[in-house]
Each structure stands twice: as structure tokens, then as C-alpha cells.
Amino acid sequence: MVSTVRTVLGDVLPEHLGVCDAHDHLFFGSPQLPGQELRDASAARAELAAFREQGGGSVVQWTPYGLGRRAADLPLLSRDTGVHVVAATGLHQAVHYDAGTLAELRGRLADTFVAELTTGIGPSGVRAGLIKVAGGFHALDAHARWTMTAAAEAHHATGAPIAVHLELGTGALDVLDLLCGESGVPPHRVILGHLNRSPDFTVHRQAAEAGAFLAFDGPSRANHATDWRMPDALRALAEAGFGHRLLLGGDTTTAAARSVNGGPGLPYLLRRLRPRLEQALGKDLVGRIFTENPGRAFGVEWR
After folding, report:
1. Crossing angle of helices 142-158/109-118, nearest 10°?
2. Per-domain residue ranges for the chain?
3. Residues 38-69: tens digit of each pLDDT
4. DSSP state, 35?
5. What stretches pass through the bilayer (predicted)?
6. How do beta strands 10-12 and 5-7 pair?
7. Across-strand partners of 249?
8. Exposure winner among 35, 78, 288, 290, fewest CB in 10 A?
């Protein structure tokens, strides 16, 4: 079988992704961020076009079930801008949902993930290319264990990668214990997000040694105090031989953070962060982090 990345326009070879923003959001809405919903399709198109102008080739949207993915809009945006888009299934932390939504998913969560990966997200027919779940702050509560267990089941049924929101960058090793140790998910099918928010170089290295992909995604207004540590963290991992495990993303989650509204938005990743990292790590490694690594992380021999 051939490894492919499942985009909203169909499966593509990993080498066709181009420069990849490995964690971002074109659409997103949560009761935890009232008034900052990403709902405007025109603004999403402008962000993608600006990213394309900076040399971007693909964006992986980590917006999961029930948080305003607008899957039906993603194919047109991808065609209009020439940027590959990968959609997600999965479930975020419990605080992002009402009790009724969670109750409806009891007993069928893994089946929901599998359906969205194989037949499509609702009537849109757009197939997801990854499963996004989330941990808690330095711990895994019952909701996290439920969603991660379902994600593991869906992985075993489809081969899909599992991307994990680490709350403030913490809990990486607990996540790997559950997904890989208890549930049998191969570590290279796990992507740990937000590691830049907790610059614990020892934990970073342990997660890399376990075989997971490590995503550093920002800048972050809420976690800006750690943004400046990112080059050091990436350098330490590269020098330890884990440059092939690194991913970079923007994680735009609010309307105010979009470039069209005066924020950094999708273009910042390539316009400002890429040159900064090239100074610290060298152009060759940064180029591979943006192109080769996402293909390995999101490329799957789909079942």
C-alpha cells in the first residue's frame, strides 16, 4: 500500500504537501472563546491566500467534532487558494461542549470518528485526515481517557494519526502511556501539540525517544512567555537526533489573531518564524521540518 495524506479534495502523496502548517484553524468556535469565533469564510480564504503568498502549500486544521469545522466550505477554499487542507475528526476537552452533545456521543464515539475518516463529515462528504483529542493540565481526566480510547479504536480501524492538544503543553508522557502503552497505537502515529507552551526539554526528549511527533505551534497571546524558548527547544531536539520528529504550526484560534484583523495569522509562521528558526537551526533542517516531516506524520496507509 502507498502512504497518502487525506485532504479535503482527496488523498495526495506526502511529497505533494509542500510547505505545511501542521496545526492551525480556518474555522473554530467554542463557548470558552465567546465573540472570537472563526466563522467568516471570506476571512479564511484571505488567510489561506496570504499563507500561499509566503510559500505555503498545506494547512492541517485541528478543529474537531462540534466546534464549527464547516467541512463543506473547505474544498472550495482549498481549490480557490491552491492550498491543500486536511480536516479533523475527534473531540476536544469537555468544557468546549454542552452536556447534551456529549451524551449523544456516548457509546458511539469511535464509530463517529471512523465514519468521518472513511465516509465523510456529515452531508459534506469531506473525509477527515486525522483524529484530534485533548488532555488536561498535567493529567488525564475521565473525559480525556474516554476520547483517547475511542481515538485509539478509530486508529486501529483506519490507520489515521492522532493529534493531541496538550493543555499548556503538559501531560505528554501520560498521553503516550495511554495511547501507546495501554491502547497499542504506534508512537509514530501520535502527534503531541503545544509543546512550546511547556519548555521542559527533558520531557520533550523523552517523548521524542518514545517515537512520537512533536508539534510546536504558536505564537500564542495566552502563552507568550514561553514563545521565545521555541528555538532553543527545537535546537536541543535536533542536536539529540530528533529533527525528523518536529512539526511547526500557527494554531490560530480567535478572530483577533487573524492577519486580516491585525493579528499574526497564518502568514506569520512563514513570514517571521521561519527566518528566525533558520538562523537558529539552519535552512536545511527548517526546510525538512516544514516539508518532509508533515508528510511522515500525516501520511497513512489507509485501511
Report:
1. 40
2. 15-298
3. 999 999 999 999 999 999 999 999 999 999 99
4. T
5. none
6. antiparallel
7. 217
8. 35
Q: What are the binding residues for Zn(2+)? A: 23, 25, 132, 165, 194, 251
- Coil vs helix vs strand at 58: strand
Find, among 281, 164, 147, the residue nearest to 212 by Cα: 164
Q: Which residues contact 252 (CB under 8 A, 6 or more apart)?
A: 24, 25, 38, 47, 258, 263, 264, 265, 266
Round to whole Å and give the CA distance between 300 and 278. 29
**Predicted pLDDT of residue 121:** 98
* Residues written for the chain: 303
Which grid coordinates are listed for 111?
464509530
DSSP 74-102: HHHHHHHHT-EEE-EEE---GGGS-HHHH
**Residue 228, pLDDT above cutoff 90:** no
Distance from C-alpha of 249 to C-alpha of 192, rounded to nearest angstrom: 12
Query: What residues have CB less than 8 Å from 273, skipping those under 6 apart?
Result: 219, 248
Separation of alpha carbons 223 and 74, rounded Å: 29
SS3 for 240? coil
Report the candidate in 134, 114, 132, 161 with the shortest Cα–Cα distance to residue 24. 132
Q: For 248-302, what is each residue's pLDDT tens digit? A: 999 999 999 999 999 999 999 999 999 999 999 999 999 999 999 999 999 999 9
Is it true that domain 15-298 has CATH number 3.20.20.140?
Answer: yes
Claim: this prediction has a pTM higher than 0.85: yes
